[in-house]
Amino acid sequence: MTFNSLAFLIFAAIFFMLWPLVRRHQQARWVAITVASFIFYGWWDWRFSLLLVANGLVDFYVGLGLERFPRARKMLLVTSITANVLTLAIFKYAGFFLENLNTIWMTVSQAIGIVSAQPIPVVHLVLPIGISFYTFHSMSYIIDVYRGAVKPTRHLFHFFAYLSMFPHLVAGPIIRGADVLPQLEHWHPPTPEGRWEGLRLIAHGFFKKVVVADNIAPIVNAAFLAMHPVASMPYWWVVVSLFAFQIYCDFSGYSDIARGLAKWMGYHFPLNFNHPYTSTSLREFWTRWHISLSTWFRDYVYIPLGGSKHGEWASHRNMALTMLISGFWHGASWLFIIWGALHALYLFVERVTRWPARLLAWPGGRVLALAVVLVQVWVAWVFFRATSLEQAWQIVTTMFSVHAWRMVPIEGMTTFAIAVIVVMALRELYEFFAPRMLEQRMHAAIASNRVTTRFLPVFEPIVLTGMLVACVFLRGPGSVFIYFQF
Amino acid sequence: MSCDRTTATLLAAGFIILAFALLRASIGGPGMPDEVFWAQKFLFAPGAYDMVIAGDSRVNRAVSPRVIRQEMPGQRIANYGFRSTAYDAAYLRAVERLLDRDSHPRIIILGITPHAFTPHARANNGFNDLAGTPRRALRQRVFFGRWLYSFGSFVSVEKTAIGSYDRYEFTNYADGWTAMRVEPLIPTMAVPDYRGFFADSQADPAAVDQLITTVRRWTTQGILVIGIRPPVSTEMIAVEEELSGFHEQAFVTAFTAAGGKWLAFSRHYQSYDGSHLVESAAIQFTRDLTDRIQQLRD
Which of the listed residues A156, A187, A218 is the one where a domain comes to its end? Predict the structure, then answer.
């Protein structure tokens, strides 16, 4: 079930009513989380649960084996990683590989004159929801056990409570065993502040998803589903900007809800998005966008490849490989690989030229650096969202074509959608220009009794109440979270 | 204090939402909300009908089962028209499944539009969208019905209301018909869209053959299969004849050879966009259709 469904509202209400009854007892807590999470996950299709169980069982026992059979550690690690990668390869990438193999096979056959060559039958398996996320949770656990960073759990339900925990199961944040297993072991009741923070995260998350992202979605969908891309430069800059906010609000909204639910349960998930569109370098962007995935790739791909230990060029190569794999992780398509490759290229140019540092030294350089980062990220988003390579190329060339300077109305662009987007853009601009300064002034004003704090405890609840009401009555046409497909 | 703040905020939000929804439900208009309407239509009970009217949105808005029932009391009739529906195998199977095997005569009315045979319709149609939605989700929509609708978003209402029309209202009936009340009538409104469709996507002869084959099978099973061309504006007819790649005369010949009965209508019926009838025209068209069906039955 998705967070933005009636089924989930009922599920969450029941879960949080029963949670106080079981949370004090360790095993009951683990069983409750596991059972609830499998109901949550099996709601889409109960058969998906079987794969999750199989993957989990392999990694649970491999974890135990790593401790018990020190001589077989490497073999066990390879077994676990192979099982996880194979699961992904079969369910997510088999169709892609076969289609590409077919293209090569048919081209070669024609070239060498095999007239009767038949294409290999391509099987498109149903992609189990969240497979990319839970295989990464599982892999991080095994690698951490192998490295000695986490002690393997001996309780099956302890492991499954970590692996399947419903707030993060299908779209992250990608959490590590080292972070969550100890939390699951020693439960602390959520403090009133924790509960309030949970509500804040949940309200903001839902607002970002259902009011912002879902109201932008039809406009973006109409633009990308048009038979022929509109030949207008301003049109595509607006549409791609809309998509940039759509995907940000969609995904960070999910992460916020997940973190808020965890808070209500008494657990803490790390921050996953930190205003990425305020970055003044691509390097900074990747420390703010999908942080749990970026750090996962850093710790389990980039560093094992050698990181920056073996010289500058080896470091560039490792970074490029990591970005390509990251792109491919997002989906079995050349478009995602190109998206990853573009970011690798950006990072390479940035590392070699050190342009952000140079630019920041100029007057107004910070704004210029932000603009340069956003242009690069926007161009890459085109490949992420386009329906074909041809379409992506047409859009990118239109975005930079001075001949396409004509205004074209955007289908579905209502006054409400415009208002939503303006508010979001202002919110990010505020983060970019003034958060610390205003915060400091506010604290100073409160400390010197220049402003009264009497209304502050009332102001935020009113805002959150308004946001929750807006989530119901101003929500956009319902759609699933974008990152479910990954 | 903080603990109370969380609960109080949740309660306040819940109260406001509930109060607003109740207020809305009490002043809401007649008819069925769109989401509920399409879901319940997709879930029409198999084997429960004597007559099924199939086709795309033109059929959905042009044929009223309740008007037919006024002339043919006791008949169980379903309007099974969906947006942009293609006559593909899945849809035809679904249409057939609705008929009660024991009723006599069993009638299927097919609303024939050139667009229904195009790849565009196959790739983008309301029936397949619903077929791709889990049945449980559809049942939930129907079950919670109007109650859920009162929690509906004002943003989607805004989107339904915008357009080139001063008045754009509709009523969805449980039997599958949507009655449209739209002003002013702009009979050329949808024509550019169809020009666009047909520029890239023309009627596929294989899709036509598939329908004819199915009609032949149905008629041999004793089903009375009636073909109609839902009325459209003269501008739309001109575009379809020029660009669609669909040849009505050849189709009618094949259709009748397969045992189907073709009904043509010469009266002019008012369309609000060139493609769909307004309520009054739909009622008139349904009456004319009912007369012709009764003649066939006699």
Answer: A187
